[in-house]
Design a protein that fits this description.
The structure holds two protein chains of two kinds. Helix content of chain A is 43%, strand content 22%. By secondary structure, chain A is of the alpha/beta class. In chain A, helix 2 runs parallel beside helix 3. The radius of gyration of chain A is 13 Å and the shape is globular. In chain B, the strands form five sheets. In chain B, strands 14-18-19-17-16-15 form a six-stranded mixed β-sheet. In chain B, strands 6-8-9-11-10 form a five-stranded mixed β-sheet. In chain B, helix 8 packs antiparallel against helix 9 and helix 12 runs antiparallel to helix 16. In chain B, strand 21 and strand 22 form a beta hairpin. The chains are: A alpha/beta, B alpha+beta. Chains A and B meet through helix 1, strand 5 and helix 5 of A and helix 1, helix 2, helix 3 and helix 6 of B.
Amino acid sequence: MAKILAVDDSASMRSMVAFTLRGAGHDVEEAENGQLAVEAAKGRKFDLVLADVNMPVMDGIAMVRELRGLAEYKGVPILMLTTESHPERKQEGKAAGATGWLVKPFDPDQLLATVGRVLG
Amino acid sequence: MAKVDLAQFHRAFFDESNEGLAAMEAALLALDAGSDDGELIHTIFRAAHSIKGGAATFGFADVAAFTHVAESLLEEVRSGRRAIDAAAVELLLRSVDVVRVMLERSAAGIAAADAESEALRSALAAMVGGAVVATVGPASAAVAGVAGWDVTFRPFDYLLKTGNEPLRMFRELTALGRLETLANLDALPSLVAMDAESAYTSWQLTLHGDIPRAKVDAVFDWVDGDCELAVTERKSASPAVSSTTPAAATPNGPRAVREVAANPDAQSIRVGTEKIDLLINMVGELVITQSMLSQFADGVDAAGLEQFRAGLAMLARNTRELQESVMGIRMLPISHVFNRFPRLVRDLSQKLDKKVSLDLRGETTELDKSVLEKIGDPLVHLVRNAIDHGFESTARRREAGKNETGTLRLEAFHRGGSIVVEVADDGAGLNREAIIGKAIERGLLSSGDGLSDDDVAELIFAPGFSTAAATTDLSGRGVGMDVVRRNVNDLGGSVAIRSVTGKGTTFTITLPLTLAIIDGLTASVAGETYIVPLVSIIESVQIQADGVKSVAGGGELFRFRDAWLPIVRIADAFGCAGSRRGIGEGIVIVVEGEGARLGLFVDELIGQQQAVVKSLEANYRRVSGISGATILADGAVALIVDIAGLVRQQSRRKAA
């Protein structure tokens, strides 16, 4: 069981991710944008952060940059939820320090497979 | 594993998509109005992007395909490759409408795309520059059997900090075939100089087996650019006959997805209305209990009375607070209704070639959900009317020395225990002559002599009245102001009109805060108790028999300020048994409804109280002149007088 932070401004997407991961036995916390995610992550230790790219207030890329600036999140896997139509966003995410990405649309099985890949 | 049923997230998806569309529409309208706020385009893009992502995830392919093209256009704007012009705004606004309909159809389980959506999709695609291109799948040519792959992998020193882990990647490779690893530690510094978070090791890997190149690449996909990587094919000793079938995803065995209802959004919970209605009912009972106790306290004269009273005061406060917070659950900001007007005003004024700026105020004012749902149509009607008939043409405004751009103000605010919504235009005001002319033509009047401006204004609420010289396709839809007034009356509210020639017209809608509880004045009539809604009451007066004028047909009138008002004796209207009081022995409550006033004659006033409205229809049957019932502190039932209903009865009697 891993502690996972799911970040997405879309409530339906966030609850789908959280529901699927909880179903697989993980402990999931949700955040509605990058800013709230950084606040939730500070002083705690999540094993994995899953974040949407396009969000109001603070987007996923800025969030990765912030998290990588925190000592406790130096090597923690952070996956971006991207869309196939913007390959350049993957590179932006990577440049900010993201571990990898999961391309939308994905189904619960793909989500679990990718999460399994980083949690080892 | 047990399939996660995605259908459970559909409701949330539709709700947030509609919110997204509203935000998109508002931002587009702001752009249309000339705003250069850079955040607007991000808002629009984000909405389209989220809808597309959600639609694709939850299986609404038509919606996803449509929003994909809109998103592409927005992406060009966002990245600065295209300036947003009026044509693009127009297309995107139409897209908002189309997506709204597509979502409705998706929710109903029918095909979302139709000729209209496809035509618009093509128009969007043409604007983006090119036909709608189907996404080309990676045409990975089947590699004729390979013996395996040699991989040179030299991570850059920061690779571990990105959360990637070579060990995990090797494990993935192992899942594909037999893996040999050879670590090169040449670059490893002394322990003292070593940074534990940096990568120093490089590897020479050999993966054996007939494995598609794409599978190997996928393992290194995330670290592309964060390492030196070379993947070369090992020459095959014996070419395989066919390409490999990718190993079927190994079933992990049934992994039950526990039905742990996730609370997706702590800030805004969506609650079923029936549950809330139940709660409201319970609180109603509590209110009754509390007032019963209060009555009891008045009669007791024991030593512990002081304490008992204090407890009661507490109960009263708790009850009130509970009631307020429970009622609050049903309250929603009127912005839910106001949101549709920027678009409506833009489209209508464009169509009529008038310049109108919309001034929305008090959007955070909260209204009961059921009131909110029903106030939309009357407001739309008033707004259409204002733009169609209220505002003069641009030329005429210029002649009159007015600003070419008219201002339409929509404002909501609290006044006493009511919510007031005003729709005000700064147009020409009501045309007295035209209204009187039309009323005479319709047989509503024989002459306009002696009519005050208010009387004339009232005429537009008469059934079937329409002042437009020609029926336009905007407001002349056969629905008149009489329907607006009736709809508002059904909500327990009232509509008033104020017009100043040359300055404009203001419609004022007064609505109750809630339909579940009313503030009322209790009055006794022949031993029975009636409740008169406080909002309708002007004042209560005592009159003498010689101040009453009898008219033909048995009616009575009394002088109130400078008008003669009809008297409705409650005892007669509802057939109360018991002795009749003379007019001088009772009280007349002057009330107003549907723009008319009358006096209700009762025996005496008892006091003011909040009444939890119980439906008479649901428990008995509909009674003309009665809007509901409530239970009094002593358990007796009191009837709530329907003022608008009595006014209608009265005017029918007058007409007869």
